[in-house]
Prior knowledge:
Layout: H1 3-33, H2 35-44, H3 48-58, H4 75-99
Amino acid sequence: MNQIDRIREMEQCLDVSAAAVRRMTDALEEYEAAQKAYKKLNDYYGSARWMKDFEDDEAGRLPRDLKRGVLSEDAVYDLITEDHALKVRMMKLLARAMDKHLI
């Protein structure tokens, strides 16, 4: 590979990497901002209040037009599972990067 082609290739690597870092930074900021809501939801799920709300929904005591995915038996659990898997993935990525001295 000649010098000009190498510089062009590396410039493309810079552009792709810089864009990915910006998107990841934005995503992490959004994720961090959502942690308070996530904790509140996690505390609610499976609590006595959640159980009461679930039972009232099952008994038809809640408005039909009320959005209530939070009362499904899977939505919150699936989110918690997905969040855990994401954290494990980020830890593995960080560990590999540190092992290769990329950070």
